[in-house]
Amino acid sequence: MSRGDLTETEWRALKGLLPIEPENRGRGRPPEQNRSIINGILWRLRCGAPWRDVPSKYGSWNTIYRRFRRWSEAGVWENVAVTLAEIMADTGHYSIDSTTVRAHVSAAGGKGGLINALLVARGAGSPVNFTAWLTPLDGRSPSP
Hints:
Blueprint: H1 8-15, H2 34-47, H3 61-73, H4 76-91, H5 114-122
């Protein structure tokens, strides 16, 4: 198992949410194991590399890409996200993500003139902040 691959606990929680690939579809190669496919997808999403650069230990890059695309079109990822969020909420686990993005006035292109005045008026170059507070439905304060 490589760094970033699914642990046994993570795999047990995830495998029931994935569609079952038929063992014998007729002609062609048998489908590869879902766990290695998921690890390949996670590797690609984590690294941001092209699909063709997914290491062969996860299987054929084309198989990984096609499975990702097929599951995306079928809504599998939305179902996984909703189910995992419900599990986390039921067990009292919360995850909050925040991002700050800074852009300089010159990041918009063009040099000087009206565009700079418009960008400054819109606040370009100032940070955009996102803050979220999460409170359980029963009114209790979340435990740290």
